[in-house]
Amino acid sequence: MLDPMELLRSNLSRVRIPEPTNRIYKQECCISFDTPRSEGGLFVDMNTFLAFGKDCVGWNYEKTGNPVYLHIKQAKVLAPEDRPLKKPTLMAIGVDGGFDNNEPEYEETHSIVLLPDYVTLPFPSVELPEKVRLAVDSILMAEGAEKKEQLAAWTADKKQTSVYAVNLQQIDNGIIVPSSGWKCSKCDKRENLWLNLTDGTILCGRKNWDGTGGNNHAIEHYKATGYPLAVKLGTITADLEGADVFSYPEDDSVLDPLLAQHLAFFGIDFSSLQKTEMTTAERELDQNTNFDWNRIQESGQEVEPIFGPGYTGLVNLGNSCYMAATMQVVFSTHSFYSGYYKNQSLKTAFEKAPADPTVDLNMQLTKLAHGLLSGKYSVPVTEEKDQTNAITPTTNSKQDGIPPRMFKAVIAASHPEFSSMRQQDALEFFLHFLDQVERAHGGKPEIDPARSFKFGIEDRILCSSGKVAYNRRLDYILSLNIPLHEATNKEELAAFQKLKAEKISEGKDVSNDEIVRPRVPLEACLASFSSPEEIQDFYSTALKAKTTAVKSAGLTSFPDYLVLHMRKFVMEAGWVPKKLDVYIDVPDIIDISHMRSKGLQHEEELLPESVPGEEEEPSKPVADESIVTQLVSMGFNHLHCQKAAINTSNAGVEEAMNWLLSHMDDPDIDAPISQGGQVVVDQSKVDMLLSFGFQEEIARAALKASGGDIEKATDWIFNNPGASVSTDMDATTSETIPAAADAGLPDGGGRYRLIGIVSHIGTSTLCGHYVAHIFKDGRWVIFNDAKVGASVNPPKDMGYLYFFERLNS
């Protein structure tokens, strides 16, 4: 047998010194969730720089023949018993001022291991070949690929200096602001007060969605005057960086480098002020204690931790709870359990994967499935504490959970928003995820687990002529309006509104205990989906004219798993997204048999096929020639000037010129003006929809579908929640409706049992927190990121997404 050093020298050709562009994995196995802290440590392939746990490294040797590995092992260093916890001052994890993870310290050791016999050589050692020493040093010094692909902390974006601060004009109107005793100048509010830095007016802040907070007087003052900056009274201390300065035109908390000077203008000696109010960031922290957070997360309840197969938590990677909650429910379904766990081993998925398994969706989904379902990582954390040199192991009642970094990187590769550290809409992620799984199984629908969620919807349109048309489409979710007028507690609501009005008139806030929310039965939401609705300006091919039609909808198939999306977000006046503060009474068993579409009936007559050119062509958008002429005289291109006039609705020369200057580099600026009613989308309207949290492609599609009308575009988006998913569409007026759209879809009876809830806490789907509750082994279980426990009071009435499993008769 060869000497270990000679064996290493004979394999030097399989060792590479990493280049700066190489991705080096050294924190987590590519196939499992083993790390250097796992029992067997981690093995880094010194040719590909991929990392493998002890159980998987042999598979890599069999597949690649690469024999030389850097073995990394981390052992825990004993922590003192009396290590103090720090109070968080920042909405962050793992950074100074953030939440103290109380992370233990680890000691790292290294060695060189040669497969297949696991021959081991120590490192560091001067006897090792120089190439090996250089390669190991480069691997250890490099930042790991895992770390590059994630931000270690969850924190708000760093404040930027306001562009309005340096040249801020202040009005000398004789106002001197006292050091205490402040009150809103337009109401009796004495909290949440903001000092406008231009004119010294003290006004109350914004009203929260639940009725608490201010009365919007500060922002209304900005809208009336345009004075841009305000500072929150009560947050000003000698440390001016901690003061909460808000810029209304920039719509964000900002830094004012001249704040001391701006305060002194109104007689404020900041060095003598004591902090009495929470900053905006601190108020976000305080939200953790309000009613919704406590109810959905079951805070204060004695939640018994659960460990074992199927009870593994997911580490929050930084606002990734939308993904964690969704994937926990997805992997509780039989289709995904079978497809990625029961019927596919880690080794099989690795053998099928390309050279880099970290970029393969099938591999990373299988890795995630085995991580969540095997129970290998769902074990109580054992802590060892140093008590006067005696090692005392104690079992903690929590688990570490697994970090789905590689899965997130793969699933987000085709969607830039999901690769960010910002909060996302769980519904949008769910639809994107299923779309990616379906694409990965292209051509093999019979083994596609995503199909268990897919179903057909049929719209029946009854024209005033008495004739009908049928349109079919496919979807993964049933999106439901919430008819507040169907609330079952109207008397209590009326009494609450009276109490609320009295409290507001007295300048008091309504407490959480006093709030009464509407209770709407799920049956009413389902009925609103099926109920007929009028369509104005429907072009009838029978009447050859526009008329009013009636549309009703039904399902052409019932999926194995039915997902109900509650439309809790609506648009208020001024295009402000508002969350409906409402409870939905959801039973454990539902029956939607009555929602099955009956299809074309023998007594019905179909609308005739439309003849091209038969319907009056919508008028082509026309530019105001006087505006175009003036712009052309300034040297602009004639076509560009026409587009500018059209896209600003012929508002005037100045508006058109501003549009031109900001759209000169548009890729389609030289394209002919669209004909036949195609709308040239105004970018300012797209930007407005983007500010509501919608995707750009969806915003553009909505504006095109609604003729550029923002109000109609918003309605279109809410009425087409699956628009971001490529769905098969099949519309027909012929008697034989093609069955291709429904071919191979699962179908069965209409009785379903509730198995999962994804709840949302916060004022928008793009902020706040998501939590999952899943019915497993005869009981409800809460999955709150890495925390898994027996649910005491599942919030069935507060769900955003409800997952139902079909009951087989």
Automatic annotation (TrEMBL):
Q: Which UniProt keywords apply?
A: Hydrolase, Metal-binding, Protease, Repeat, Thiol protease, Ubl conjugation pathway, Zinc, Zinc-finger
Example GO molecular function: zinc ion binding
- Pfam families in the record: UBA (PF00627), UCH (PF00443), zf-UBP (PF02148), zf-UBP_var (PF17807)
Q: Where is the UBP-type domain?
A: 160-270
Regarding protein family, the annotation reads:
Belongs to the peptidase C19 family.
Which residues are the active-site ones?
Answer: C321, H769
Q: Where is this region: Disordered?
A: 602-621
| Name of the protein in question | Ubiquitin carboxyl-terminal hydrolase
Query: Start and end of every USP domain?
Result: 312-807
Origin superkingdom: Eukaryota
Q: Which residues bind Zn(2+)?
A: C184, C187, C204, H217
Q: Which residues form the UBA domain?
A: 622-663, 680-720
The free-text function statement in the UniProt record for this protein reads: Recognizes and hydrolyzes the peptide bond at the C-terminal Gly of ubiquitin. Involved in the processing of poly-ubiquitin precursors as well as that of ubiquitinated proteins.
Q: A biological process (GO) annotation for this entry?
A: proteolysis
Q: Which reaction does it catalyse?
A: Thiol-dependent hydrolysis of ester, thioester, amide, peptide and isopeptide bonds formed by the C-terminal Gly of ubiquitin (a 76-residue protein attached to proteins as an intracellular targeting signal)
